[in-house]
Design a protein that fits this description.
5-stranded mixed beta sheet, globular, alpha+beta, about 55% helix
Length: about 190
């Protein structure tokens, strides 16, 4: 999908969500654009209740499980994080703020919300052996940590409610490696 078409289609989707009074939060690559320049994406990621998804027949759902649904809005790929998942609901309710995209104000995940979602996903991505997505997520995490210097410990405490002990240990190790990378970068300036 060309960038201009992507922006127009996303703008139409946001307008539709607003008209139907759908409660959602923008997450993923397009949400990252609120905080980091140059982040590329070809899809849109939203946190939304399943009941809201059902009120949007314009989104053709292809796959769905307990926590995720994916579908198409015209040619736009949409990945939906369902609020049935307690962490997704927590991000929707407590880690969102108004952002601006395509000349519209939209609910968007905060830096901390994006970090929670990306850190939560990493152990699963490692198990899947998805090196490309692991690299992308770790780079997003490192960039957000470097640029915004959020308090990480409260986020790790929140993740302790949503990850098993082994996955939480892995996430802590990844965060520490990223902190070391940031320190090396800052020393090199």
């Amino acid at each position: 999908m060309e960038t201009d078409n992507l922006i127009q289609t996303v703008a139409r989707l946001f307008k539709l969500l607003d008209e139907r009074k759908i409660d959602y939060v923008l997450v993923g690559g397009i949400a990252m654009l609120q905080y980091i320049e140059g982040r590329n994406t070809e899809d849109i990621d939203l946190i939304m209740a399943l009941s809201s998804v059902k009120r949007l027949p314009e989104i053709k759902i292809g796959e769905q499980d307990e926590n995720f649904a994916s579908g198409k809005f015209n040619d736009l790929q949409i990945d939906i994080l369902l609020t049935h998942n307690p962490l997704f609901e927590k991000v929707r309710a407590g880690y969102s703020a108004q952002g601006h995209f395509a000349e519209q104000d939209i609910p968007c995940a905060t830096v901390e919300g994006l970090l929670l979602l990306k850190l939560y996903a990493l152990p699963s991505l490692y198990r899947q052996g998805n090196f490309t997505r692991v690299s992308l997520y770790e780079n997003d995490i490192a960039t957000l940590m470097h640029e915004y210097q959020p308090k990480i410990e409260p986020l790790l405490k929140e993740l302790a409610h949503h990850l098993n002990e082994s996955d939480l240990k892995s996430v802590r190790e990844i965060v520490n490696e990223i902190k070391e990378r940031i320190e090396r970068f800052d020393k090199g300036k």
